[in-house]
Specification:
Blueprint (H helix, E strand, L loop, with lengths): L7 H4 L3 E3 L20 E4 L19 E3 L5 H4 L2 E3 L29 H17 L6 H6 L4 E6 L5 E8 L1 H7 L3 H4 L5 E7 L8 H10 L4 E5 L3 H9 L3 E7 L5 E6 L6
Parallel strand pairs: 7-8
Antiparallel strand pairs: 1-2, 2-5, 3-4, 5-6, 6-7, 8-10, 9-10
């Protein structure tokens, strides 16, 4: 088994692209040679959040989903005001970001907020804090990008770096198992493999993952990628937190 030098969901700073697809199968509606799926971290950071070194986002222009174009336009520009130097300090040398806009005024903030609002409405989950938690580095969010860098959905997760920021117990700091809390794809982009490819990219170097209340579809996707259910427990919101594991990958 080929071992990469980093674990994708823990250390992914910019964009991860899908590997070349297998040979296309005729008549399969999910196979489209013109599509390319990638995931890109939501990089906007609040002024008071701890600094961290991150690579510049590969896609600085993102096309928005059709139903957001009326409020955000056809595309948004990912602001680089949260960039840090290699020591993770440039953003805070002067005590302010390199632009004067409030965090909530950035279009990428509004885009992620719109997507999370639709997730909350559809899945009947209270979701008000995700975007703010991502800006404070307490959670991680990744845009799922389709053709033309179109944001077709997102994945939210808690990883080891987030646990450190939140000041959880030392035993939790050592737990590098990613905890996927939300997965959402816009309705018009469903049944095209976007969620499956996004999870593959984010989990390709992981042998374990926990998922908050996974649907049958998500469980089926993970099973197709070699993950088997390894137990579950009740979460604080009453939903099951299900652990999945697969053999052959050591983190």
């Amino acid at each position: 088994i080929y071992e990469r030098k980093r674990a994708a969901l823990v250390d992914l700073n910019g964009t991860a692209d899908a590997p070349p697809r297998r040979r296309l199968r005729r008549g399969d509606p999910q196979e489209n040679s013109e599509e390319k799926v990638s995931v890109q971290r939501f990089t906007l950071v609040s002024r008071g959040a701890p600094p961290v070194r991150r690579q510049t986002a590969q896609h600085e222009l993102l096309r928005v989903p059709p139903r957001d174009s009326a409020s955000l336009g056809d595309e948004i520009h990912v602001c680089r005001c949260s960039d840090c130097d290699k020591h993770g300090v440039r953003r805070r040398l002067s005590g302010r970001r390199t632009c004067r806009r409030d965090t909530e005024s950035h279009p990428e903030y509004c885009l992620l907020l719109n997507l999370t609002d639709r997730f909350e409405e559809e899945c009947h989950r209270e979701n008000a804090d995700l975007v703010n938690e991502a800006c404070c580095r307490e959670k991680s969010a990744f845009f799922i990008l389709g053709p033309g860098s179109t944001a077709v959905g997102y994945v939210a997760a808690e990883v080891a770096a987030n646990r450190k920021v939140r000041g959880l117990q030392e035993s939790d700091h050592d737990d590098r198992t990613p905890f996927v809390t939300q997965i959402y794809v816009e309705p018009e982009f469903r049944k095209q493999g976007y969620a499956s490819q996004a999870l593959f990219l984010l989990l390709r170097d992981h042998g374990e993952v926990k998922v908050d209340g996974p649907s049958d579809i998500i469980s089926h996707i993970l099973k197709g990628q070699g993950f088997l259910c390894a137990g579950s427990k009740e979460g604080t919101d009453g939903r099951p937190i299900v652990a999945f594991a697969r053999e052959g990958i050591n983190v």
